[in-house]
Design goal:
The chain has helices at about 25-35, 70-85, 175-185, 220-235, and strands at about 1-10, 10-15, 45-50, 55-60, 65-70, 90-95, 100-110, 110-120, 140-145, 150-155, 160-165, 195-200, 205-210, 215, 240-245, 250-255, 260-265, 270-275. By secondary structure, it is of the alpha+beta class. It has two domains: about 1-120 and about 265-275, Diaminopimelate Epimerase, Chain A, domain 1 (Roll); about 125-260, Diaminopimelate Epimerase, Chain A, domain 1, CATH 3.10.310. It has an 18-stranded mixed sheet that branches. A hairpin with a 2-residue loop joins β6 and β7 (about 100-110). The N and C termini lie close together (about 5 Å). InterPro entries: DAP_epimerase_AS, DAP_epimerase_DapF. This is Diaminopimelate epimerase. It is found in: Cytoplasm. It is an enzyme of class 5 (isomerase).
Length: about 280
């Protein structure tokens, strides 16, 4: 299997061009290639496929083999892959995902993509659509107890479910203890991505993320979008802010004009390779 390893803010995936070759059992392959000791090492596997609805279709699998609806960091890298490898010459590219069609605007330097702006669509706030087990119209700043902590959780879907909580200091937060328990909390029937956020100011937020099916990662694009939406709903940030993650920074905007969330960030190729699967 030929592959390219790419990363967006350290959120790294193995990318396979399935416009040219078929790939059987992607769930099993994701587990194998993601292993950082016996495989290539990644947060998961991304397939780039033909689409009947858009320019390309993306499927992504977490390191545990589960398929996820969307990944903001991964889709930026898909945009870079298809342009840099000559699969398209468009600088506005439509990508089909399980969370709908996303529109990517590519910024290039010397013929290569260096920055990608993604129209992530409208945030989903209705609990049953996120999904979160709640009879309320919105799930905003609701108390959730884990161990000796009580969190005020805001639930948002960006095509995949997120639970956003605010803490004083992300650096010393016991994410490996709390993250798995939030991910599998009975409130979330399809599990959840858990973001823990420190407010720097109304234009700057700092976060760590426990990703559903992957554990802590250096960055999560949909998570950063969910954090911005939750922060506006909780009136702790403006509608546009820099989101600081362990792997770097994303700029997120929740537009009042169309209610869409826009994410801007880098996409980087690490290396090409082949592996016997």
């Amino acid at each position: 299997m030929k592959f390219t390893k790419m990363q967006g803010l350290g959120n790294d995936y193995i990318y396979v061009d399935c416009t040219r070759e078929a790939l059987d059992n992607p769930s099993d392959i994701a587990k194998k290639v993601s292993d950082r000791h016996f495989g290539i090492g990644s947060d998961g596997l991304v397939l780039i496929l033909p689409s009947q609805k858009a320019d390309f279709r993306m499927r992504m699998f977490n390191s545990d083999g589960s398929e996820s609806e969307m990944c903001g960091n991964a889709i930026r890298c898909v945009g870079k892959y298809v342009y840099d490898n000559g699969l398209t010459d468009k600088k506005v590219v439509n990508i089909e995902t399980l969370a709908g069609i996303k529109v990517l605007t590519l910024t290039t330097e010397n013929g290569e993509v260096v920055l990608v702006r993604v129209d992530m669509g409208e945030p989903i706030l209705v609990p049953e659509d996120i999904p979160v087990d709640s009879a309320k119209d919105r799930f905003i700043s609701e108390p959730v107890s884990i161990d000796n902590y009580e969190f005020k959780v805001t639930a948002v879907s960006m095509g995949n479910p997120h639970a956003v909580s605010y803490i004083d200091n992300v650096a010393d937060f016991p994410l490996s203890q709390i993250g798995p328990k939030m991910e599998t909390n009975k409130l979330f029937p399809r599990k959840v991505n858990a973001e823990f956020v420190q407010i720097i100011d109304r234009n700057t937020l700092k976060m760590r993320v426990w990703e559903r099916g992957a554990g802590e990662t250096l960055a999560c694009g949909t998570g950063a979008c969910a954090v911005l939406v939750a922060s506006v709903l909780n009136n702790v940030s403006e509608r546009a802010a820099a989101i600081k993650l362990l792997g770097g920074e994303l700029f997120i905007e929740w537009s009042e004009k169309d209610n869409h969330v826009y994410m801007t960030g880098p996409a980087v190729k690490v290396f090409d390779g082949e592996i016997n699967i």
